[in-house]
Amino acid sequence: MSLLSLVQNSLKGIKLPISGASFSPEQFDAHVMTTYGRFPLTLKRGQGCRVWDDRDREYLDFVAGIATCCLGHAHPAMVEAVSKQIQTLHHVSNLYYIPEQGALAHWLVEHSCCDRAFFCNSGAEANEGAIKLARKYAHTQRGINNPLIITAKASFHGRTLATVTATGQPKYQKNFDPLMPGFAYVPYNDLAALESLVAELDAETPQVAAIMLEALQGEGGVCPGEAAYFQRIRQLCDEKGILLILDEVQVGMGRTGTLWGFENLGIEPDIFTSAKGLGGGIPIGALLCKAFCAVFEPGDHASTFGGNPFACKVGLTVCETLESENLLGNVKLRGEQLRFGLQRLVQQYPTLLEQVRGWGLINGLVLQPDSAVKSVDIVKAAMDEGLLLVPAGPQVVRFVPPLNVSADEVHQALMAVEKALAIATKN
């Protein structure tokens, strides 16, 4: 009998404590820490780009687990991979060779500029690993005693103590001090500020170990990087031996219409991180680097669950499906369709909306700075119209649907947004 059958048989006749809509939000909040301001919505199932709540109401999902469910829900390839792998081998220690991990690492290396991969469970862990790798490289290869990493204001790199310090947004750091030392911040897309800071920090002796940026700031308001800015940073890093780290957690795995966000900028990083879409909703993260800075040795870094057969099989399935279904092409087409429709709404509501910005299928509808209507108001109104969206700060509504979203679904979403804007402006 398979493991799946054993689990199913063992559950027969057992009354689970959480069963459908009978488990109320009040009961939920009594046991789960309130680390999220949750919307009053209980989702029960999904198929493709659609989800259903506990009252069987249907929604278009343009949140996708916040840019995570890149193949949508219940994709046949993922269902098959999950079902087969859980019945074969789901977890062993990294003390042994794991074929699925090797296969996923091979695919990522073959489809990127990097040479080595380390697997973990999340974007924050991947970024934490990148920070450690940069620090060790600075100590062992450049002789820097107190290495500094420069990050951007309005960035987001995670919730661990190191990555929340790397995050250039004080609201995420409040009440968690003392923060980790070794970070400095500059405005995003401001080359003069960056060059000035590097010159200041390295005036007497080299201190800057790495520059860590997002190709497009997601949580910071869907702000794309400027090609000239990143190309000069790449040149500066080469001149000074500084490592360039790119956080691809939200924009990687095809989200922008290219496999990696940095491809939109015409550069290559020394280190980059991936998560979210890498597992299509199954937890997995990856840290990738070029061979010259792969300085980790046994005992330097590890992850109990990272790179296990289950997560890596799903990750490899996601990668292969991106290719077999030509999803990068779909992302470009549907992204253009979405931006065109949103720009039309900006023209229709000029006192409420300022602009649309983004790449591929990560787009932000930006509200006027003085608007009394906030992004959460539009998100709530859209939810009433059967469309799930997510804020990217108080002034930006973010659109991050599955990468296989159809033209008809984008059209339906735009109609729902138009109704939501009409409602929001009346209230």
CATH homologous superfamily assignment of the largest domain: Type I PLP-dependent aspartate aminotransferase-like (Major domain)
Helicity, as a percent range? 25-40%
Instruction: Catalogue the unreliable spans.
Output: 1-21
How big is the Rg?
A: 22 Å
Structural class: alpha/beta
Taken from the alpha-carbon principal axes, the silhouette is globular
**CATH topology-level fold name of the largest domain:** Aspartate Aminotransferase, domain 2
Q: How many structural domains does the protein architecture include?
A: 2
CATH architectural designation of the largest domain: 3-Layer(aba) Sandwich
Q: What amount of the residues lies in strands?
A: 15-25%
Reading off the top of the CATH hierarchy, the class of the largest domain is best stated as Alpha Beta
Largest sheet: 7 strands, mixed
Individual helix count: 14
Measure the end-to-end span: 59 Å
Overall mean confidence score, pLDDT: 94
